Amino acid sequence: MTATANQRFNYENFTPATPGCSAVAEAALKKIDNVVFYINDSLSNQDRQIIVANRLLNLSKDCSIDNWDGYNGIAISQEVLNQTLEFTKSLSPDIPTPDLCPEPDGEIAVEWYGNNNAIISVSVGEKGTLNYAAIFPDKNKANGTESLNGKNKGVIEGHIKRVLS
Amino acid sequence: MGKIKELLKAISKGCSHDSKSYLGPLPIAPEETLARFLFQSRHFSKTGIKQAAFLPARNMETSVFRKTRLGQAYSATKKVIEDERKMTIKAVALITAGDVEKEEHLVVKPEESDHRWHANIIGWPENKHEQKQLALILANCATKE
Questions:
Q1: How far apart are alpha carbons A127 and A91 in whole angstroms?
Q2: Which of B39, B52, B129 sits opposite A103 (nearest CB)?
Q3: 3-state secondary structure B15-66
Q4: pLDDT tens by residue, A16-72
Q5: Looking at the whole model, is its pTM more than 0.95?
Q6: Do A144 and B40 touch (CB under 8 A)?
Q7: For residue A24, what is the DSSP state?
Q8: For residues A139 and A134, what is the distance between their CA atoms, to the nearest angstrom?
């Protein structure tokens, strides 16, 4: 079987029409379940990466030279594009595709929006620095710095989920 | 065409700016509306303004115009700025000076060396994440024009 990123794995096509009743058949079905879960997750992640890569490509066209914003903004570098792709790739599959926004210092803001004007914006820098700020649905706020390769990156994922809750 | 541009520039600069009666910029009242011209369509959406629109430039200032004070010269000023920068203003973020200054650190300071009724948002913290937090709050207060 071959599956492209745009083809969702169809569970029904791979479930036996007349499931067996033996323990072996049940174990086989459970294995299929696990495989389906894995494939759907990885395809979902792959889908997100394809969308992010497309958005980065368009963004780089608009912001490839200094003063792209009319206020002397620094051009977005290839390294920042790469780091942004790495950051989104590292996120759990259940996190939806983010919006991307160029910033005047040449970094890219990766953003998610929730209800009640909730938002989290994560700036990705050339060296994989992640500066984030968030306003949660309950109007509480958080901000800080993490590293793409750091141990505490889970903090940002937690904040993203809270914004989207 | 050149004369029209000169005229627009004169309007933007303000009649009293070059005259002897010009005593310097007037203080900014909290209820004054400030206009942040946006040349990059990625800095706003259908529904509102994004935080990146307010982040400071390399000089740690965010350039704005005092829309309330510009009055009828507002449109002419926009045209002058577009001509100067050879870029189109895609949208404008509007926010009151009071909404900016209610945030700790931030101050709106008149800066009229090039244009009458121009000002800068200054006082941005050095840390990027703290800048972003303030920019998020400003973006939430702002409306899109």
A1: 18
A2: B52
A3: CCCCCCCCCCCCCCCCCCEEEEEECCHHHECCCCECHHHCCCCCCCCEEEEE
A4: 444 445 666 665 555 555 544 444 445 567 888 889 999 999 999 999 999 999 999
A5: no
A6: no
A7: H
A8: 9
Cβ atoms within 10 Å, residue B16: 11
Partner-chain residue, chosen from A71, A101, A145, that has the shortest CB–CB distance to B50: A101
First-residue to last-residue Cα distance in chain A: 36
Residue A6: how many CB atoms within 10 A of its CB?
Answer: 9
Any B CB within 8 A of A80 CB = no
CA-wise closest residue to A34 among A6, A14, A5, A63:
A14
According to DSSP, the residues that pair with B37 across neighbouring strands are B92
Beta-strand (E) ranges in chain A? 99-102, 108-113, 119-124, 129-135, 141-147
Rg over alpha carbons for chain B, rounded to the nearest Å, is 15
Residue that has been written with the tokens 């989207």 in this structure: A164
User: Per-residue pLDDT tens for A84-132?
Assistant: 999 999 998 889 999 999 999 999 999 999 999 999 999 999 999 999 9
- Sheet of strand A108-113: strand arrangement: A99-102, A108-113, A119-124, A129-135, A141-147
Q: Structure tokens of A161?
A: 């989920």
pLDDT classification of A150: cutoffs 50, 70, 90: confident
Cβ–Cβ under 8 Å, residues A110 and A98: yes
What are B16's two structure tokens? 């009293």
Class of residue A70 by CB neighbours under 10 A (exposed 0-12, middle 13-18, buried 19+): buried
Assess A61–B contact: CB distance below 8 Å, yes or no: no
Q: Which secondary-structure segment (H or E) carries B128? A: helix B128-141
Kindly report each contact of residues A142-145 with a partner whose C-beta sits within 8 Å and lies 24 or more positions away, as own/partner: A143/B129, A143/B130, A143/B132, A143/B133, A144/B129, A145/B127, A145/B128, A145/B129
Nearest to A126 by CA among A144, A110, A105: A105
